Amino acid sequence: MQQSSIQTKSLPSAAPLMANRPRVADPLISLVVPCYNEADTIALFVAAIDAHLAGHQIEMVFVNDGSPDATLHTLLELSARDPRVVVVNLSRNFGKEIAMTAGLEHATGDVVVPMDADLQDPPEVIPAFLERWRDGFDVVYGLRTDRASDTMAKRTTAGLFYRFFNRLSQTEVPANAGDFRLMDRVVVDAIKQLPERNRFMKGLFAWVGYPSVGVGYVRPERAAGESSFSYWKLWNFALDGIVSFSTLPLRIWTYVGSLVAVMSVFYASVIFVRTLIFGRDIPGYASIMVAVLFLGGIQLMSLGVIGEYLSRLFVETKRRPLYLAQGVYRNGQDVTDTIGPR
Fold first, then answer.
1. How far apart are CA 127 and CA 139, in angstroms?
2. What are the tens digits of pLDDT across the range 20-63?
3. Residues 276-306: tens digit of each pLDDT
4. What is the per-residue pLDDT across 143-165, written as a single tens digit (0 to 9) for each?
């Protein structure tokens, strides 16, 4: 495991008003941990939690997202000997966003912290989260002040995505803020009311609002194992986020179509006047092919954008459960039903 110094720094609040609800002196902290092929990191994760959150009431909700390795076996063994551990075993791989949703729905804490098992979300930052929560903020999100552990390509594309997303969407997502955050119970209950199937959790966290503040930290490298994300998955993830939180891509084609129509009328007028005055023939094959290919490309692109929205509407109308759980385990025993709440 590569050690990295973790520095925390409170950043200005995104909301001027803070919650006036009384805070529990010793809150139960639910850690929601989606797991996919994380058998090698689980023991390291629990050791880090014990080291940095000693003295706090802890609930660890691990969600096994259809891992083909020994993740489930490791989690069940851990659950049998540690009463703080809850294991939600999904019937297959549903993806991190759904796994996180399943964890939020099974977490019982006064505050809930979604985080990765690979320790890139450092547990030593959580006490700083708690301090800001006690100050009255319902959401305290982690801000990556140094992404040296990421490749240059990933840092660049992440920065471009946040800027592009915030320009298109009315729901602003803080740049360099991941899923790692502390949320008050009232915020978690609000998120649980959101029914959509295509879930972009960063957007949902931002959409519900509530007084929020950022705490900066340095993101370390993975404690063990390899990331399952590829650039293709990240591209689709970004596309889901934009389509879920903005209709501007649909509206753009109204303006594109209007612009093309105006240009065609102008060009037709030029051809008419030139032919009428100078008696020149209209150019044939080349100009026709250029026009046909250009307009055909515009039409296919617009149909593709419409298709992205229509496909998500199709998924939503089927109203399938977000996930199926083969079992939910406490103390090594299956304690709940097999179908997710929605």
1. 14
2. 677 878 899 999 999 988 888 888 988 889 888 888 888 999 99
3. 676 665 566 556 766 776 777 777 777 777 7
4. 887 666 566 666 666 667 667 66
Report for 110-114, 143-147, 328-332: range of highest mean pLDDT: 110-114
Distances in Å between the Cα of 146 and the Cα atoms of 7, 121, 178 are 10, 13, 13
**pTM score, whole prediction:** 0.69
Count of positions (residues) in the chain: 342
CA distance 1 to 47: 13
Token pair in block for residue 289: 């092919």
Contacts of 13 (CB under 8 A, 6+ apart): 137, 211, 212, 213
Average pLDDT over residues 131-149: 80
- CA 244 to CA 198: how far, in whole Å? 7
Q: In angstroms, what CA-CA distances link 212 with 116, 157, 207?
A: 21, 25, 12
Six-digit token pair at 187? 């915020």
